[in-house]
Amino acid sequence: MGRSSLLSRRSLPTESRWGSLWLVATLLFLASILVAPRTNAGSEPPAAADSLTNLAALQDAFQQVVERVSPSVVGIRAYRRHLTTLSGADTAAGGAGIEQRVLVNGSGTILTENGLILTNEHVVQSADDIAVLLHDGSELPATVLKSDPRSDLAILQVERSDLTPVTMCDWDTVARGQWSLVLGNPFGLGGDGQLSVAVGVVSNLGRQLPGLGEVDDRFYNDMIQTTAPISPGHSGGPLFNVRGELIGVVTAMHTRAPADEGIGFAIPMTPAKRRVIDLLCRGRTIEYGYLGLTVRVPEPEEREVLGLEGRQGVVVQRIEPAGPAAKAGIRVGDVLLAYAQRPVSGPAQLAELVGQTPAGTWVRLDLLRNRRPLSESVTIARRDVSRVSWMRDRAVLWRGMRVTDLTDDVRRIMGGDAALRGVLVIDVLPDTPAERADVQIGNLIEGIAGEPIQDTAEFRARTRAASGPLEMSIRNRGTRTVTP
After folding, report:
1. What are the residues whose beta carbons fall under 8 Å from the beta carbon of 307, sequence distance 6 or more?
2. Is the dihedral of CA 78, 195, 152, 117 positive or negative?
3. Pick the catalytic residue: 235, 366, 405, 473?
4. 161 included as an active-site residue
5. Is 122 tagged catalytic?
6. Regarding the domain delimited by 386-482, which CATH topology (the fold level of the hierarchy) does it fall under?
7. Which of 63, 273, 288, 291 is the S-S candidate for 383 at Cβ 3.0 to 4.6 Å?
8. Among 321, 301, 316, which residue's Cα sits nearest to residue 365?
9. The domain 1-286 is classified under which CATH number: 2.40.10.120, 2.160.20.10, 3.30.930.10, 3.30.160.150?
10. 254 counts as catalytic
11. pLDDT tens sequence across 133-181
């Protein structure tokens, strides 16, 4: 792990230390009260007495909120099967392995009396056994009613009809500086149903977490930042305001090192997120638009040369082969100024605009190419994790070539053969064995060492142990030998 890391899967990285500035200030204030001089025969100064009264009232308020919301919060135990390779054997190639049962602790919030529970998708992802721990100490089996990896939200179902649903906030009233409370199951300590409490403030709203969750195509673009300490097992649990209303779903922590104090983040209960949750509760699949490119913010020098004002425009970095942007004629280096006549100011904003566009919609893109304005029309496709692996770490990088699984669109481009198998080359790094072997972007590798391959799993299995030259069969180009 590097000096800076973002972790969101299975567990949160590390518990935040007891050193939040607001808490230190409170303790110092209390200490000043305890050592303040007495006026007469042990009597307290009026100001100190008033301060203690106010602190006691605040403490009582927190206790009342915790007591009221506790029945609406649950602990979650999700079990996954994990296959571990033994002695370096490759299970994909028939080697030996051992199956382990991995426990993931999480938290959740009750939405309805009849057993619908909100949590993070990454808590229950690939789980084959889920248990929910209720406030009264009882444990119930749960199933995933519906989940959405992109928003990292999931709805669980348990067989109970007498549960206490949470109260949702009025999002317009949520603001920086407000108190925030977290209830959850850190490190699985809530096995008796008595979940742990943490207190902080809303540090900021609309925080973007680029890079976090990209492997699973998650999109964290408008997160709540909070000082409330969160730990592994808090994922999926509630973030409350001081009135006990749900304002967010605790999801991630940013930390530089295990000993550093981390910053907690929660998915906000905005109207847009509430709509996603409502659809999931009805068992609906959430669909997102897809453009098939990645972009970056222009450098200051580029803005000056191009005459871009303020935060206007993003530069196209990469384009998915045969994706919607490629079909529309978009090129690497184009500056995207507007999407459907809405100015584009950053990658996250563009991703949100595209995601909200239904598949099949025709959209106009306003661009700069070689400093000249132009417009292109594009038909938005449906986003699917399998088709965006070209820009994710899930794609396989070997000897300078990056390959990914075929999509239906690529099969259609290559002749419409649904039985077409192999891996698609989506990137070739300069001055690498792949480039020297004349492997090119867009090549379809159908076989390795004379044997056909089906997908990236077989590609990885065949190439992992290779130490010498390896022959690749490329569709319509014959063979290429890639030498280390």
Report:
1. none
2. positive
3. 235
4. no
5. yes
6. Pdz3 Domain (2.30.42)
7. 288
8. 316
9. 2.40.10.120
10. no
11. 999 889 999 999 999 989 999 999 999 999 999 999 999 999 999 999 9
